[in-house]
Structures are given as structure tokens and as C-alpha cells.
Hints:
98 residues, 0% helix, globular, single chain, mainly beta
Amino acid sequence: MNHNTTTPHPDVPTMRAATVATITAHDCERWVCVCGNTPHSSGFCMIDSNGDDTAHAPERWVEPLYKCDGCGHVIDAATYDDTTHTVAVVGRLPRRAH
Ligand SMILES: [Zn+2]
């Protein structure tokens, strides 16, 4: 594997800074991303801390991280706040090219 020389996020080489700190969360699973994506439109996929899709490897899904399939923002579901109705965006991954 080749190594990137630029690592904006020390733990996740492919992760870039998010453009927002939080998104709206009507409840712990009903999110509205900044791109307008919801669980019922493009949806959110489970990823591990390397940004890899864990749909076929649930044993690697040790942190409740989700990637927005609309824009690539990474959401940490553990940060859901039922007072402010937000959930934190921890970074952004490039969208898959296909
Ligand atoms: Zn989005």
C-alpha cells in the first residue's frame, strides 16, 4: 500500500476536516445532513475509524461512526444530544468514485 504524505487527520489519513461541527438530529437515528441527506434518501453507512465501509465486516465497527452517502461527512452517533438535537460531525471523507 502506498502512504499519503499529507495526513490532516493523524488517525485517519483519508479524513479531511468537516465543513460543519454538527448536523440536525431529530432523534438518535433521524439525522439531516448539511447536504440534505436523511436516512431515507441516500442514507448513512457504517464505517470504521479508517473510513472503510463495515457493512460486510461488522466486527470492525467498534465506534458508532457513519458516513453520509450524500457528501461524505462522518458522523459520530455517540455524540447525539437530545437537548440541542444535534450530532457531531467529526470529519469528511471523499465520496467513492463510482
Ligand atoms: Zn451529507
